[in-house]
């Protein structure tokens, strides 16, 4: 191949934010154009013989594929690998974007609504062939469901698989007729002018890896550990063709580089696993370890599975792609299939979905609030609360259940019991032996269990799948340096190596990531216990004598040279100390917030739909209660204001009446001398004048009266 600069190739891919679209887009964005044309052996020889710097310089950045495309959800963020994203408002605008690309990929395996757009895009491009500036490649990523009802290649031997050459005889599942029609149209459009517009159809097996596709339902059930078994729909003997999503991306890369003669390609790995084998493998490695066969009809009761998912899970096809083996140069991620690569698949699943276990150890004296805080942390982060007494009781109950007669289970739902009969026989014998030793230990220690058994039970619990998946909060254990060492150190560790090495070798699978040490003075703790209600103290170790004894024991264990906190310090897992007395918070809300702040965000699945509805309902109820309280408070204030106004009005009226009364009295008091004066000096003469006026009745009475007063005034002589 010439080492000269090559023009970059623009690749269009629909729904870059979907499971399949994201994986394919990210893979292609890292691929060098034409890289798959070189064999793996040639690349290794060139790396050994040639100068690596010269090799890198001969491949400029322009040779990388530039990925552009659309999103399935408008609110989705632009993927890191995408050069551009198109928020298409019209078909004309979409066509203009497609014409700018040399390779057009349409994935119709996840969203059937994309079929109509894919066929339109291919037809529209076909009509523009004469105006193409450069040749274009159209690849339709379809599904093996377009083969679901095909007759076996050899009816006499059902084990003979379908191959790429059988594609003309394929018969689609009734619910995937649009898929097969789209496949036929795409192949037909590519026959007009192969040099300018070539088309390919890739029939993909069910995709897995990097977060999981149709199998995610089973991975999630297993990871959540909420059920004792994982369901298998039907008898589970149907064969399901599969392919790792990155291997599918490699197939598309090879088509873009090779432009093979065959335009219909089966994209499946070499595995031929049944549904039961796949789910059993998932259950064993990420779930409870057991499966349960349920009728197909019951599958429809699940809200998380669509009709499309169920059709895909119930398909029964043996398929083998000879073309991939003979023609393409694929660096397989999981050529042997999911079962053979399950550890890697689980690692991808957890990393891609951010499902990392959160492991916390709570340390502190009795009465400091360890269990309350642990419960709150478990609720917030959806972790498992590990309490020593509960672990011991649960383990003994499980052992007794194992040794109990099995007649009760003869008519139960069929699980994988037939395969495990021999193993169960060994388990019963071991359980009998262990139970006998436990009873002997408890008899010798006045009802207490020896440390070696407690450590073993806790270690088994921490290694259980639920704790490995979600994580745990270890409540008040281990209590001593030796207990911590026995619990967390690797069993195969050599003591001499431990002495020589600075950091002991611990079991990374179960060692806590965060250690929280709650501290408080004896006076504070004693005062807290004294103030506890009697109903809470009754039947616990918080009675006066027992509590003081437990507190003294804790102080003794944590003043030695080697304490449990020293063990974590040696591992460089430095405890976070929190002074409980400093917060003055009986309900520990502020302490929990402080711990959550230190630990960070949850690392598991978000809220389920039911939990979201519950939270929304609670929020709505709280909002209604708050509104009702605000309304009642508003009405109360208005009533108080009205009452205050009425009281003020009455007070004012009373005051006004009093003022009027006082004014009247003042006026009356002030008018007495004046009346006396008038009665003595004016009224007698005036009354006589009036009487005379009445007798005479003059024409001008006023003038008469004035004249009379003037003449008869006592002061006028």
In short:
This protein has 717 residues and is α/β, with parallel strands linked by helices. The chain is 50% helix and 11% strand.
Question: How many individual helices?
Answer: 29
User: Helicity level, as a percent range?
Assistant: 40-55%
Q: So what's the overall shape?
A: flat
**Biggest sheet: strands side by side, in what order?**
3-2-1-4-5-6-11
Number of strands: 18
Beta strand %: 5-15%
The stretches of 5 or more residues where confidence is low (pLDDT under 50) are 1-6, 47-61, 408-417, 493-500
User: What is the average of the pLDDT values?
Assistant: 84
Distance between the termini: 158 Å
- Largest β sheet strand count, sense and barrel closure: 7 strands, parallel
**Computed structural class:** alpha/beta
How large, in whole angstroms, is the Cα Rg? 45 Å
Overview of this protein structure:
- The N terminus is likely disordered.
- The strands form five sheets. This protein has a seven-stranded parallel β-sheet, sandwiched between helices. A five-stranded parallel β-sheet has the order 15-16-14-17-18, sandwiched between helices. Strands 7-10 form a two-stranded parallel sheet.
- It is flat, with a radius of gyration of 45 Å.
- 29% of the residues are buried.
- Helix 15 packs across helix 16 and helix 19 crosses helix 24.
- By secondary structure, the protein is of the alpha/beta class.
- It contains 29 helices and 18 strands.
């Amino acid at each position: 191949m010439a080492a000269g600069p090559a023009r970059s190739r623009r690749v269009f891919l629909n729904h870059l934010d979907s499971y399949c679209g994201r994986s394919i887009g990210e893979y292609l964005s890292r691929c060098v154009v034409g890289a798959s044309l070189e064999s793996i052996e040639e690349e290794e020889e060139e790396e050994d013989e040639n100068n690596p710097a010269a090799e890198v310089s001969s491949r400029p950045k322009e040779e990388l594929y530039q990925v552009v495309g659309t999103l399935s959800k408008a609110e989705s963020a632009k993927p890191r690998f995408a050069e551009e994203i198109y928020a298409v408002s019209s078909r004309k605008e979409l066509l203009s974007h497609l014409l700018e690309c040399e390779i057009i990929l349409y994935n119709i395996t996840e969203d059937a609504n994309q079929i109509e757009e894919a066929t339109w895009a291919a037809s529209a491009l076909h009509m523009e062939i004469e105006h193409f500036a450069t040749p274009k490649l159209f690849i339709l990523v379809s599904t093996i469901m377009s083969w679901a009802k095909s007759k076996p290649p050899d009816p006499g031997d059902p084990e003979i698989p379908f191959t790429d050459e059988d594609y003309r005889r394929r018969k689609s599942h009734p619910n995937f007729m649009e898929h097969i029609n789209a496949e036929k149209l795409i192949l037909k459009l590519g026959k007009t002018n192969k040099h300018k517009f070539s088309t390919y159809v890739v029939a993909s097996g069910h995709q897995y890896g990097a977060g999981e596709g149709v199998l995610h339902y089973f991975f999630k059930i297993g990871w959540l550990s909420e059920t004792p078994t994982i369901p298998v729909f039907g008898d589970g003997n149907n064969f399901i063709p599969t392919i790792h999503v990155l291997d599918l991306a490699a197939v598309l890369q090879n088509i873009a580089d090779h432009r093979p003669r065959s335009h219909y390609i089966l994209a499946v790995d070499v595995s031929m696993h049944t549904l039961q084998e796949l789910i059993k493998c998932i259950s064993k490695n990420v779930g409870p370890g057991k499966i349960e066969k349920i009728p197909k009809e019951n599958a429809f009761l699940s809200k998380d599975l669509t009709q499309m998912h169920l059709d895909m899970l119930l398909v029964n096809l043996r398929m083998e792609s000879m073309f991939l083996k003979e023609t393409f140069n694929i660096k397989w991620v999981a050529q042997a299939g999911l079962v053979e690569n399950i550890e890697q698949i689980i690692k991808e699943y957890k990393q891609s979905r951010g499902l990392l276990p959160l492991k916390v150890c709570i340390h502190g004296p009795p009465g400091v609030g360890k269990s309350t805080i642990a419960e709150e942390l478990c609720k917030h982060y959806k972790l498992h609360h590990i309490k020593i007494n509960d672990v011991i009781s649960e383990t003994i109950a499980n052992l007794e259940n194992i040794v109990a007669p099995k007649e009760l289970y003869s008519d139960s739902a069929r699980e994988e019991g037939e395969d495990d009969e021999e193993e169960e026989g060994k388990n019963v014998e071991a359980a009998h032996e262990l139970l006998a030793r436990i009873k002997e230990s408890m008899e010798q220690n006045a009802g207490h269990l020896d440390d070696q058994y407690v450590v073993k039970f806790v270690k088994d619990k921490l290694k259980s799948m639920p704790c490995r998946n979600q994580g745990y909060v270890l409540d008040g254990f281990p209590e001593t340096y030796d207990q911590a060492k026995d619990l967390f150190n690797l069993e195969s560790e050599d003591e001499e190596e431990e002495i020589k090495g600075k950091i002991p070798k611990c079991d990374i699978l179960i060692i806590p990531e965060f250690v929280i040490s709650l501290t408080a003075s004896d006076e504070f703790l004693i005062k807290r216990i004294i103030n506890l209600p009697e109903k809470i103290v009754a039947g616990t170790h918080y009675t006066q004598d027992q509590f003081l004894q437990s507190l003294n024991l804790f102080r003794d264990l944590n003043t030695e040279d080697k304490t449990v906190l020293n063990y974590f310090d040696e591992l460089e897992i430095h405890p976070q100390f929190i002074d409980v007395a400093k917060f003055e918070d009986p309900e520990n809300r502020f302490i929990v917030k402080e711990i959550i702040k230190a630990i960070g965000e949850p690392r598991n699945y978000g809220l389920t739909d039911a939990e979201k509805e519950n939270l929304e309902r609670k929020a709505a109820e709280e909002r209604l209660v708050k509104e009702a309280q605000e309304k009642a408070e508003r009405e109360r204030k208005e009533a108080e204001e009205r009452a205050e106004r009425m009281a003020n009005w009455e007070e004012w009226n009373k005051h006004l009446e009093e003022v009027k009364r006082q004014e009247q009295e003042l006026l009356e008091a002030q008018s007495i001398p004046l009346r006396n004066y008038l009665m003595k000096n004016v009224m007698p003469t005036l009354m006589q004048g009036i009487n005379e006026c009445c007798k005479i009745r003059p024409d001008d009475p006023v003038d008469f009266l004035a004249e009379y007063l003037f003449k008869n005034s006592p002061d006028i002589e």
